[in-house]
Write a structure and sequence with these properties.
With about 150 residues, the protein is an alpha+beta fold. Helices cover about 35% and strands about 15% of the residues. α3 crosses α4.
């Protein structure tokens, strides 16, 4: 297991990777002076830096998050939400062919281990409200403003 840290406008992030891909990103990380990164964590760090600088809208990284078949389907749908847009939980449920599974979609969204890259922050309430985000609603709001999806 390799890990690296990146300082961003929303705080330090910790990037976790195995040999297959990125497996997690943690918010509010405490950076370490010792380097435990690998080529993959370095690529991720660079792409996150570009994203926060406003020069990257899409990530090109192998992802290897562990989850149920249903969770992985939700996370795959999240990756397809275009930069600068939002959608509702119902939209994700419809996309994966489970229109009655809105609550389960919310739970899978909330358990997304790779925020930002798997953009769970782009999912909002049907009424446009900012609801639920593991990093905190302040970070969700910042990310949506950064992408131009929230003009408040």
């Amino acid at each position: 297991m390799a890990y690296d840290f990146v300082n961003t406008p929303i705080g330090w992030l910790k990037i976790h990777a195995n040999d297959d891909g990125i497996i997690a990103i943690d918010f509010d990380a405490e950076p370490e002076a010792v380097d435990h990164g690998n080529t993959l964590t370095k690529r991720c760090k660079q792409q996150l830096t570009e994203y926060f600088a406003g020069t990257r809208e899409h990530f090109d990284l192998p992802l290897a998050a562990e989850g149920t078949t249903f969770q992985r389907a939700v996370w795959q749908a999240l990756v397809c939400i275009p930069f600068g847009t939002t959608c509702a939980y119902q939209d994700i449920a419809d996309t994966i062919g489970k229109p009655k599974a809105v609550r389960a979609v919310g739970a899978a969204n909330g358990s997304n281990p790779i925020p930002i890259i798997v953009p769970c922050h782009r999912v909002i309430g049907r009424d446009g409200s900012l609801i639920g985000f593991g990093g905190g609603l302040d970070k969700k709001e910042w990310l949506l403003k950064h992408e131009g999806a929230l003009l408040v």
